[in-house]
Amino acid sequence: MNAAASSAKPTIVLLHGVGLDKSVWKPVQELLDFDSVALDLPGHGQQPPLTSTATLSELGDDVVARLPENPVHLVGFSLGALIASNIAIRFPDKITSLTCVNAVCDRTPEESAQVATRLQAARDDFANSMSIALERWFPEDTPQNRALREETDKVLMANDVTSYLYAYEVFATGDRELVVDLATITAPTLAITGENDPGSTPDMSYRIAKYIPNTRVEIVPEARHMMPVTHPDVLAQQLNNHVQQAERIA
């Protein structure tokens, strides 16, 4: 790392999941000790919709073009974690640390079949598949969950459906593309997921640690998939600690 980069103020860059936008990170950003930038993924939020099949590397290239000049602490949630890992593999000089939040890794045949079924369900009936996802993410009927379901539903239903499906195809298959190169990642890595996340399971975070050297795994008790909004305090504390430790050894 050059002198200018080493003297720059640490910046955390946050990548959201499929069908969401950068607003999912707001609760976490409010609790971070470092400067942070949340980006909309290609085809999401304020970015132009995807109009054709995309590869994981193409999504990564789009994000890299919008990263700050100096190396960043790159954090990805769900699809964002696949993109962040892809960037860590291909552009190691761009990052100081990597964090994979509620990430998938090296799905088993059964797990691959499950995500393929969800993709087909979205093709068949997008609105219904989003309702099912919301029930999976926020199952308990509490005031907090009702508010989160309503807020998240607005973001999901604002998607360009064709663009969403192209992005979901990457999410459904990108972990297989990554596995062969994960071991080349040298940045300090945190893999964190929820104890009760059915799609990005604790076992998947341990798989990340099996492939990526210098990975620390954290499993959040009772948490499910949408930790940036359900557990922002826990997530922010883990990110603050991870970034602080990575800065000491950078």
Automatic annotation (TrEMBL):
Keyword Transcription attached: no
Q: Name one Pfam family in it.
A: Abhydrolase_6
* Record InterPro entries: AB_hydrolase_1, AB_hydrolase_fold, AB_hydrolase_sf
Q: Which UniProt keywords apply?
A: Hydrolase
- What residue stretches are annotated with the AB hydrolase-1 domain? 12-237
- Asked whether the keyword Signal is assigned, the reply is no
Coiled-coil positions are: none
One example of the protein's molecular function in GO is: hydrolase activity
* Domain of life of the native organism: Bacteria
Please give the Gene3D superfamilies that the UniProt record associates with this protein: alpha/beta hydrolase
What PANTHER family does its record include?
MONOACYLGLYCEROL LIPASE
Indicate what this protein is called per its UniProt record.
Answer: Alpha/beta hydrolase
